[in-house]
TrEMBL record:
EC number, UniProt record: 1.3.3.11
MF annotations from Gene Ontology: pyrroloquinoline-quinone synthase activity
InterPro entries hit by this protein: Haem_Oase-like_multi-hlx, PqqC, PqqC-like, Thiaminase-2/PQQC
Keyword tRNA-binding recorded: no
Reaction equation(s) it catalyzes: 6-(2-amino-2-carboxyethyl)-7,8-dioxo-1,2,3,4,7,8-hexahydroquinoline-2,4-dicarboxylate + 3 O2 = pyrroloquinoline quinone + 2 H2O2 + 2 H2O + H(+)
Source taxonomy: Bacteria, Pseudomonadati, Pseudomonadota, Alphaproteobacteria, Rhodospirillales
Function recorded in the entry: Ring cyclization and eight-electron oxidation of 3a-(2-amino-2-carboxyethyl)-4,5-dioxo-4,5,6,7,8,9-hexahydroquinoline-7,9-dicarboxylic-acid to PQQ.
One GO BP: pyrroloquinoline quinone biosynthetic process
Organism per entry: Nitrospirillum viridazoti CBAmc
Keyword Oxidoreductase listed: yes
Pathway, per record: Cofactor biosynthesis; pyrroloquinoline quinone biosynthesis
Protein name, entry field: Pyrroloquinoline-quinone synthase
Record key words, sorted: Oxidoreductase, PQQ biosynthesis
Length: 255
């Protein structure tokens, strides 16, 4: 099965295969920057740039989920989707270090040497990072509910990239510890749970060829958004290495 949709209506199994083919071709574990990151080929400043820019993506995930939550038509669907907000924003009474994915990502960022307030301000992120992440929120806001749900299915492919990232970074960077990468541990159980719901929803509700094409296109666009973020990092901090005005400049680096 290729990532290209067909003119006929696909069976649910064929649709799932087509969606998975999108990730096999386009998921950002294939990007050169990711390969440099997990192989230990980046310096500390380049890892900091990744952590800083990725924070903006992490911080906007709950906004994206809140937008979709407001569009879901039934209490049952809203209850199921609401867990995603708690996963990232945390919830009252939780122990602070584990209180949501955003908090854990901030701990990752400070663990690689960034200032917490600076990270949260997002003033140093790349313009392309902001543009790409905001485009994801717009996709969820403006497209059909089916397409918005389908766009979340990049989580089908996340266990692979998490395994590569965690093992590679622990093995290759002496400033990275298991505690630094604690963000990723809960995602190994949260993401499959979220995929189970979203994939079942898409397979049930994408009933026409047009709806199926829309779902596949939405997932493709989400993969492009993730890929574009790494394009921006590679251009600014690897090759050719031109950092846009106002963006984070690693210590010791001259523009």
């Amino acid at each position: 099965m290729t990532a290209e949709p067909q003119d006929r209506v696909l069976s649910p199994e064929e649709l799932e295969a087509a969606l998975r083919a999108v990730g096999a071709e386009r998921y950002h574990n294939l990007h050169p920057f990711h390969k440099l990151l997990h192989s230990g080929a980046l310096n500390r400043g380049q890892v900091q740039a990744w952590a800083l820019n990725r924070y903006y993506y992490q911080s906007r995930i709950p906004a994206k989920d809140a937008v979709l939550l407001s569009r879901l038509p039934t209490p049952d669907l809203r209850r199921l989707w609401r867990s995603r907000l708690e996963d990232h924003d945390g919830f009252p009474g939780a122990d602070t270090p584990a209180n949501g994915g955003i908090e854990r990502w901030l701990r990752l960022a400070t663990g690689v040497g960034l200032d917490r307030d600076y990270v949260q301000s997002t003033v140093g992120i790349l313009p392309a990072t902001r543009f790409a992440v905001d485009a994801y929120v717009s996709l969820v806001r403006d497209r059909s509910v089916l397409e918005a749900v389908a766009s979340s299915l990049t989580e089908m492919f996340s266990p692979t990239i998490i395994a590569e990232r965690v093992s590679g970074m622990l093995a290759n960077y002496d400033f990275i510890t298991q505690e630094t990468l604690a963000y990723f541990t809960p995602r190994l159980t949260q993401a499959p749970r979220d995929v189970d719901f979203a994939l079942a929803y898409v397979k049930e509700h994408a009933r026409t060829a047009e709806q199926q094409r829309g779902a596949i296109a939405a997932l493709t666009e989400k993969c492009n958004i993730l890929w574009a973020q790494l394009d921006a990092l590679h251009f600014a901090y690897v090759e050719p290495g031109y950092i846009p005005p106002g963006a984070f400049i690693p210590e010791g680096r001259r523009q």
